[in-house]
Design a protein that fits this description.
Elements: H1 3-22, E1 27-32, H2 38-48, E2 53-57, H3 60-70, E3 75-78, H4 79-89, E4 100-101, H5 105-116, H6 124-128, H7 135-147, E5 149-150, H8 152-165, E6 175-178, H9 186-195, E7 201-205, H10 213-216, H11 221-228, E8 233-237, E9 239-240, H12 245-260, E10 273-274
Parallel strand pairs: 1-7, 1-8, 2-3, 2-6, 4-5, 6-7, 9-10
Helix pairs in contact: 1-2, 4-8, 5-7, 8-9
Length: 278
């Protein structure tokens, strides 16, 4: 690539980033592949108008990376740590303010089910798929109350239940930034929808990078639905500075062939462009 082409590429990259930063749309969704600069974008948005920002993701190492990159510009945390902080501030049905977050609580409650009910219960899908009236979910909440402890999924579930009944308690920020949306499950999507009722929100993700379907009942379908709805303004960050041209081109060839065979029909159509000016 010659110098003129590099200059044009950089100008287009800057134009796309600026369009997102300058947008006044209250609800935005950005399709952003690997190495396309989403964390840099978060910083640009916050620097443009300093204020109160919440950045949410779903696992600790992603939250820690965002904290490192953004510093004190925004509150960066996982769903679970954020929901724990909410539960310490609002009414807590069945637990008091001395409750603890205990990640292995599900194992204890599973043991309780064997002792008290004489059968094995599985709780994950009752929470992640919001099966509100399922016997499994109701038993878990009962035992959680007994131990005055919460686990990851029921921390989010409890906050959802509280916000639905007490929408005035939904916290407000200048903007909420949501990372890795392609790996969210129904529980997390419902939580974000509630938060978006009172906040400007920007969702970032890439359905090609969905990894956690089996582990946490996540689905890239949720980001696809948001992208195709009229509720959110769509943007794209196509310039990849993590992979060489041969890798980017090879991926494009694979995708082209797959779609020729009528595969990936639900996939968000997007472009990746190698961006390695150095």
């Amino acid at each position: 690539m010659n110098t003129e082409e590099l200059i044009e590429q950089e100008a287009e990259r800057n134009r796309l980033t600026k369009a997102i930063v300058d947008s006044l749309e209250p609800k935005k969704i950005i399709v952003s592949g690997p190495g396309t600069g989403k964390t840099f974008l978060f910083g640009q948005i916050i620097d443009q108008k300093p204020g109160s920002y919440l950045v949410l993701t779903f696992i600790n190492n992603l939250a820690d990376k965002l904290k490192q990159e953004l510093g004190n510009k925004a509150k960066c945390c996982t769903f679970h740590s954020f929901c724990k902080s909410i539960l310490h501030k609002v009414g807590r049905k069945g637990i008091d303010d001395k409750f603890i977050l205990y990640p292995q609580l599900n194992l204890i409650v599973k043991s309780d089910a064997l002792l008290l009910l004489g059968k094995e219960l599985h709780f994950r899908q009752s929470f992640t798929q919001l099966k509100r009236k399922s016997p499994e979910l109701e038993f878990f909440i009962e035992r959680s109350n007994y131990y005055n402890a919460i686990s990851f999924d029921d921390s989010v579930f409890r906050v959802i239940e509280h916000f639905e009944q007490n929408p005035a308690d939904i916290p407000t920020f200048d903007q909420v930034l949501v990372d890795e949306y392609q790996d969210f499950n129904l529980l997390e999507v419902t939580f974000i929808d509630l938060i978006s009722q009172k906040n400007a929100i920007l969702i970032v993700g890439d359905d090609d990078q969905a990894l956690y379907g089996q582990l946490k009942d996540a689905s890239p379908q949720y980001i696809r639905e948001k992208y195709r709805s009229k509720e959110y303004k769509n943007f794209e960050l196509p310039f990849c500075s993590r992979c060489t041209t041969v890798i980017v081109d090879a991926i494009q060839d694979i995708l082209t062939m797959a779609m020729a065979f009528k595969k990936l029909q639900d996939r968000i159509n997007k472009t990746y462009i190698c961006y390695l000016p150095k």
